[in-house]
Amino acid sequence: MDPIKKKSNDSSPRIGFIGAGRVAKGLAWGMAQGGQRVAAVASRSPRSAQQLAAGIAGCRAADDAQDVVDDCDLIFVTVPDDAIAAVAAGLRWRREVSVIHCSGATELAALAPAARAGAKIGGFHPLQLFADPEVALAGLPGCTISIEAEAPLLQQLELLGQALHCRTIRLPPGCRARYHAAAHYAAGFVITLLNEAVQLWQSFGIEREDTIRALLPLLRGTAASVERSGLAQGLAGTYSRGDLGTLEKHLADLGGVSADALHLYCELALRSIPLGLERGGYDEHRAELMRTLLRRALNS
């Protein structure tokens, strides 16, 4: 991509990145587009640091991570989760800097060496997929960034989120693993469920690519329905209406495919019933009839 040349305020903090992977590229380019001063980046891969820096006018590939710490005010640690603590422990920090990791699951305790040296510490986790940095950059506006920090860094990170045109939420201490695990239900586990659908369709002769093409519009429509109407009112299909006959057909057919396929279906269906009740699609009596059929299938 061409270097981002948007003019930044010379009095704004100098931002540095330790780690130049996909998350760093997406965030650094987004910050530069938002008028922030992204000044330096370091990486174990000099080529990665150079690629990130080349996308931002005035940004340089630093000699090493300590160079970034010494030169910048806000330092984002965008290394793999398991390396955060080692990076924090291996650098010389000072009171004037803030150090922020971008992990969803790692507690701020991983940055304790920086805190002991007087630095302010925080977490800044975008709920965004970063498989392709340029796609992630385009998708940043409107996404949510989860922030954990104490004042005044908390407010500074919230303003940074606003500069990225993102929503921000505040995470309380000690909940990061649970927060991160929950996010998998809206991301990676959706792909896992699509793969389950692919396998079921392949069992009667539909090719993988045809299945994906057929189901992706359904997935997009589901997301749009939830965005427009909420979880319960966005629910459609068998468990929005309480279709006992359809449920019985599903159970009879899946039981002939595999015990695993039947078990997964039943577990998901049981968790769908409360949403159907909330939607008003049926009463508790019909809900209990569905639960009975599903539990019987689980125990068969």
Structural commentary:
The protein is an alpha/beta fold. It has 2 domains: 14-174, NAD(P)-binding Rossmann-like Domain (Rossmann fold, 3-Layer(aba) Sandwich), CATH 3.40.50; 185-299, no CATH class. Helices cover 53% and strands 13% of the residues. Helix 4 links the parallel strand 4 and strand 5 (98-101). The longest helix has 22 residues, at 208-229.
Write the layout of secondary structure elements.
Blueprint lengths: L13 E5 L3 H12 L3 E6 L3 H9 L5 E2 L3 H7 L2 E4 L6 H6 L8 E4 L10 H5 L3 E7 L6 H7 L4 E6 L3 H11 L3 E4 L5 H8 L4 H15 L5 H22 L1 H4 L3 H4 L2 H12 L3 H21 L4 H16 L1
Parallel strand pairs: 1-2, 1-4, 2-3, 4-5, 5-6, 7-8
Antiparallel strand pairs: 6-7
Helix pairs in contact: 1-6, 9-10, 13-15, 14-15
Please give the alpha-carbon distance between the first and last residues. Answer: 57 Å
CATH C-level name of the largest domain: Alpha Beta
Shape: elongated
**Main beta sheet: strand number and arrangement?**
8 strands, mixed
Average pLDDT value? 94
Order of helices and strands: EHEHEHEHEHEHEHEHHHHHHHH
Report the portion of residues in β strands: 5-15%
* Strand order, sheet with most strands: 3-2-1-4-5-6-7-8
Structural class: alpha/beta
The CATH superfamily of the largest domain is known as: NAD(P)-binding Rossmann-like Domain
- At CATH level 3, the topology of the largest domain is Rossmann fold
The total domain count is 2
Going by CATH, the architecture of the largest domain would be: 3-Layer(aba) Sandwich
Extract low-pLDDT stretches.
Answer: none
**Helix share, percent:** 40-55%
User: DSSP helix count?
Assistant: 15
